[in-house]
Design a protein that fits this description.
The chain has 510 residues and is an alpha+beta fold. It is built from twelve helices and 29 strands. The N terminus is likely disordered.
Length: 510
């Protein structure tokens, strides 16, 4: 594994609305009134950004009292919506700015928001694959059955988006050049699917001249694609190239904390990637895969604390089958001050377009000089370190298992560290460990679900040199059943009778 730490920029902070905001709807008149108090630069920024916001975010932004706070809000918004949260570049923000500039140039309007519905659609969804021009005063009818016809007399356009599977019809209803959504089409196609068009209607279209040779399928025959537009407008308000180009790469991760230097916390970001999802090339020792993992960490002030990049090379004896359960590990070790952080995480297959981006929050608690215990780290393998150089913890090699799932009869392996033990005159500490396992859900017995308490527990004493101790344990999964379980660990210093507790969760698969 090759590691390089760098300082990059990215972030993600969840933008929350207050309960009062949640009760308010952003009416257009209210929005324009609040918008009028912004300066010229902020107005231009907001005009395009409003299509990416929900009503609560609009209200939140427009009621922030100072320019500085609004600027900070926008920074947080874009970091939350960064498709690559562990890198410096925000592809979505760059493309959004380009779309806004083009909408203002190509589809201007004199009133707020200063472009027509074509500009709005461009900002939301980007450039269409096909634009079909509908001439004015066509004067023909479309037979929808039961003698109903619909005349198209105003000029307009139909935009088609292949990857989104949708078409968007516009109409220049006032012959002013301003195009609005052709909403009437929605009602017509909700009631009359295109299969009911009478024969011969396509011949009428063929007699006309259009910029697209397939305007029939674009405009009149695409009821599903038309409904897709209204669905996107309601549920998925915008798409960018970064959203459509990325092929998702599944990944499991967790964040575990251990005591570092004075006042510091050794924070481990652990990954597991399904081997079947990666690409391979034939190598001298079987099949080789390599993938990138990135981490960026930010504090509450949106300042980058640290970022890292790893290129992981792994050789496997054979190419994983499509149903292979193999999981390939990776790990970052970061030194942080105690505090609340946002983590931007990315994984990328270097040979394909597969890419996974994830956001996580974590409060890193302080670990002082008194008795305390680290997080429990669930592991796929714990062994003596020997000559190994990766996944080391003291004398042990601990390969993390962030998926937290074990298949019977494999044992549940876990690791933790104890700090601040009181020592005797020979610098020996004495402690007691007690752990228990309990189901997180009721267990079904026939048609009945019943509560089940602790299903497994153990207690033992130990001693060792030094105030810091490394503990590895295993639980026999044969006594457990398929489902989710909670693992609790209690450590007591036998000299002071003080104790600390920690817990985690895991699953059992049959």
């Amino acid at each position: 594994m090759r590691t390089r730490l760098s300082y990059a920029v990215s972030l993600a902070l969840l933008l929350c609305a207050t309960p009062l905001m949640a009760q308010q709807l952003m009416a257009l008149d209210d929005e324009i009134e609040l918008y009028s108090h912004l300066d010229r630069y902020e107005r231009r920024r907001y005009e395009g950004l409003r299509y990416l916001m929900n009503d609560h975010q609009k209200m939140h932004y427009l009621t922030i009292p100072t320019r500085k706070e609004r600027d900070d809000w926008v920074v947080r918004f874009w970091r939350l919506n960064d498709p690559t949260p562990a890198t410096r570049k925000n592809e979505r923000r760059i493309e959004h700015k380009e779309r806004v500039a083009e909408a203002l140039e190509m589809y201007p309007k004199v009133e707020f928001p200063y472009w027509d519905h074509r500009g709005e659609t461009l900002i939301r969804f980007g450039k269409p694959d096909i634009i079909a021009e509908i001439p004015a005063n066509v004067g023909f009818g479309a037979q929808f059955g039961h003698g109903q016809t619909r005349d198209i007399k105003m000029p307009g356009q139909v935009w088609q988006y292949m990857k989104l599977g949708m078409v968007v019809p516009f109409e220049d209803i006032n012959l002013s050049g301003e195009h609005i959504y052709y909403l009437e089409v929605r009602t017509a196609y909700t009631k009359r699917p295109y299969e009911m068009l009478v024969e011969g209607y396509n011949d009428a279209l063929d007699a006309l001249t259009y910029s697209s040779s397939n305007v029939y399928s674009l405009f009149f025959a695409a009821s599903d694609e038309l409904m897709a537009f209204y669905s996107h407008l309601e549920n998925n308000r915008h798409f960018h190239t970064a959203d459509l180009a990325r092929v998702p790469l599944p990944c499991y991760f967790d964040i575990t904390a251990f005591k570092g230097g004075p006042g510091k916390v050794r924070t481990e970001v652990n990954f597991e990637i399904p081997a079947r999802e990666l690409s391979y090339e034939k190598g001298p020792q079987g099949f080789r895969t390599d993938f990138e993992v990135r981490v960026a960490v930010y504090d509450l002030n949106m300042e980058e604390v640290v970022s890292g990049y790893d290129l992981v090379d792994i050789d496997l004896p054979e190419r994983p089958a499509p149903d292979s359960p193999w999981l390939l590990p990776a790990q970052f070790i970061l030194t942080l001050d105690p505090g609340y952080y946002r983590f931007g995480l990315e994984v990328r297959d270097r040979r394909t377009r597969k890419h996974g981006a994830f956001l996580a929050s974590r409060n890193i608690a302080p670990m002082g000089d008194t008795l305390c215990v680290s997080d429990i780290q669930l592991a796929s393998l714990i062994e003596k370190a020997g000559s190994r150089t990766s996944f080391l913890k003291g004398p042990l090699r601990v390969i993390p298992h962030p998926v937290h799932a074990y298949r019977k009869p494999d044992p549940v392996r876990f690791y933790f560290e104890i700090y601040g033990l009181d020592l005797d005159d020979e610098d020996f500490g004495f402690w007691e460990i007690e752990y228990s396992v309990e189901p997180k859900e009721k267990r079904r017995e026939g048609p009945v679900y019943k509560d089940v308490g602790t299903v497994m527990s153990s207690r033992f004493n130990a001693s060792g040199f030094g105030s810091t101790q490394h503990e590895r344990l295993e639980i026999d999964s044969k006594e457990l059943w398929e489902g989710s379980f909670r693992l609790r660990v209690r450590v007591m210093d036998r000299r002071t009778r003080k104790y600390v507790e920690t817990q985690t969760s895991f699953s059992i698969l049959e």
